[in-house]
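Next up, sample data:
>
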Amino acid sequence: MEPKFHKEKFPNSTMGRDLVWAQTPGNVFTFGTAHLESYTVDDRNPHSVERREQMRRSIRRLEVSGAANVFFAGDTNWNERLDGVAQMPEGFVDVWNQLHPGDPGYTYDAKQNDMLRGHLRQRFDRIYVKLRDYRPSHIELVGKTPLSGVTFMKTAMVRGRMESFTFPVLPSDHYGLFSRFVHI
């Protein structure tokens, strides 16, 4: 038997965002991912209301699958300053916080990622789980090394005049998360 795949649009998304998830045969696992609404500088809208609802809807949709082991991972664009602490139903844990308490785990880090400019440092990307048969054993940031020999140019206004900058290229502007789980 093949896994069942699902996709549900977020009704409050102005960016065309949705939740995608898969259920394994026997309902042992449900895996979901979403790219939640982004902060947009152009309209000065942090989209916190939309993001909180999209997170709530995603976790609830995955939880009602009834799977023994539920995983939600994605670019949540979550910012505690704007969105508050992510409210999770009982039993869900934030894998990074569980394994690295006190470590900010920035997945978007303009101070460390040479592909970016600015000062923004946030843990936008998250993994939340509710597990019966497994436990998180490891999580790390990946994709922190530039691709060899690949660069891009960007122009920006600096002190009233346009300047060109050459940047290295990393796999993404966000660092990825790699996690392991062990059977209990």
About this structure: The two ends are 25 Å apart (CA to CA). The chain has three helices and twelve strands.
